[in-house]
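does this look right to u?? D-malate version
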Amino acid sequence: MGWPRALWETDLVSEVTVAILTRPLRYTIISSEVSTGGLLLNAPDDLIPAGPLQADEPVSLFPVVEVTVYSYECDAFGHLNQAAFLQVFERARWEMLALGPGPDLFDRNKVWPAVRRATVDYLLPVFPGDVLKVDAEVVKVGGTSLELRQRAVRAKDDQVVAQLHIVFVTVDKAGRPSPMPAEIAAVFGSRASRAAETVRFGVSDGVLAAELRGDGPALLLIHGFPLDHTMWAHQIATLKGWRRIAPDLRGCGESESPSGGYSMAAYADDLVSLLDRLKLEKAVVAGLSMGGYVAFEMLRRHAERVHGLILVDTRAEADAAEARAARETLIGVARSEGPGGVAERMLPRLLGRTTQRTQPHLVSQVREMAGRWSVAGMAGALGAMRDRPDSTPLLPRLDVPTLVIVGEEDELTPPALSRAMTSAIPSAAMTTIAAAGHLSPLEAPSAVSRVMAEFLEAVPRP
Ligand code: MLT
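got this back:
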């Protein structure tokens, strides 16, 4: 798979996915994102990995390097401790410099980056032989200081194992703070990108929230039930070149919970208010499960705002009688036991059987997301899903590029449903994600982000 893109382009290109060189040594470049220069290479088969992200995290624009952990780096307990992580992060930084402006960047400018403060968040144990993918992001460039954040992701399971926040001061030979030379400021300044931000926007009966990240044409990511926008963390972090917009629907996450007014129409109108607020005429709309039902409603009510469609683990049919009855039961559970009760009833079928065995931490992540729903929001969403219209008549009329994604172990909206939906849409493609269930973007984040990126690449710019 090749994604030809220009590397070392001019400043006109603010976010470019590029890269790939493979080194015979212990570092392998996975990918890099730069905004200055001039070569043409093929981009990676792998996207920049990411785990759960901080809300204020800036976009990574440095090469991601792979670092193998050796036994001599590990402590008496046989694992890489917090202090050793500092060295791993430092190794990765030098490699990144070597791949970009050169390891002599500081020497040739006659200053040295003295570390003034470094904090390692040690998240998971790492052992000899583990391969870590390390990225780096510029948080701030000051007159004499430089602030970076680095993250180490374990290659075999995409888990974030440690994060580093580090502040450097440029000093002269005598150790005195020295103004940041222009070349260094340009190197790091050019890599600072629009940080993630949360926007709040008013609708008729409350204030809703959405996470925004990156620049480019709009990609609206609509979460499922009982989840919130954080289920898209990997896609928010990696789908560069797109303005990623991940709202919390009314009733959950950081959005307010009006006491009523829950329907597919209200969700769709809320999202159009968000696009209006951001002055965006159109967006590619991606929806997971209930998010897909909302996407269909947007197509019914506001088709002119939808520029492309990504239907993830969802279905076009309305609820049959049995499903409607099950919604009623769950509304009762939401009212009597709260969101946790609903999550427990749904969890066994939300995550695929492989994920439940191999990624048990995702169970807690889903519980946390469900815990950010209000009772009104949950009962409202269940009622909205129960009453949603049949969207199958819409399928043959869809005239936007469409991608259907489904986890091969999805029990709630199984692959057969997605196949039928895909063949009913004139120009749709379908991808099945191995070893993932109903929450494929969360369970197999790299695979889903990759197929989304490939699809988005082909969507004509609005
Ligand atoms: C979802 O993931 O959004 C729900 O499973 C949708 C549904 O229950 O129909």
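Residues 224-225, 289-290, 385, 412, 438 surround D-malate (CB under 6 Å). idk if thats expected tbh
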